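Sample entry (254 residues):
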Amino acid sequence: MSGDIQRVYLVTGAGSGIGAAVCRRLAGPGIGLLVHTGSKRDKAVTVAEECAAKGAVCHVALGDMSAPETAAMLVADCQKHFGRLDGLIANAGFADRRTVQELDEDGLDRSLDVILRGSFRLAKAAHPLLAQSTTGRIVTVSSFVAHVFRLDGDAFTASAAAKGGLEALTRSLAAQFAPQGITVNAVVPGYVQKDAVSGHSSLDDSRWKQAIARIPLGRLGRPDDVAAMISLLAGPEGGYITGQAIHVDGGLTL
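Predicted structure, serialized as tokens:
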């Protein structure tokens, strides 16, 4: 089966939202997908089944991205199941809205561990396999909270620090990996609604109305809006784009 596969992608945080939408975008004949989730196994299995119906060969992997061993385990799974890796989409993460006064060091460490250290470990572990690909790609998923700070009470202190660091890491990796032909870019979503089955999020309607009022295009982003850019950067067509942080936010950061 692996001999029929032309490209293999590892997508973290793929049980729902942007990660799931990326998998659906990438899925098709000749594509191998390692669908990662931290704890949403049932949802990840559903995503894998949807992608398999499009012709992709899929495997589901569980792992806490804050654990030091998870990144190497995921890359080893790609080697085991597919014998290669062509694209890494580092999407796993979460939002922490706490202010600096509300946040403790454990909370800060959790964001840094999952978002920043997790992506660092993934890139380092994946580099040898990506270097063997003729079209190696890394796409990290940042956030508008590393760029917009006046948010009417929402501070995102830990998230902003982790995502800001992630963008700097992305550019550093791009410079270091370019000699092997590996491109490394960040996609920076704005406010993005969750999957239709789960609603927007824990924010109440008034907070979402405030958010939408900040967006020039007048609507929330959809997971597939972001996935469309990620799939471009992760595919063969993205071969001359590297070291960039590309905003997909409806104009929020204008």
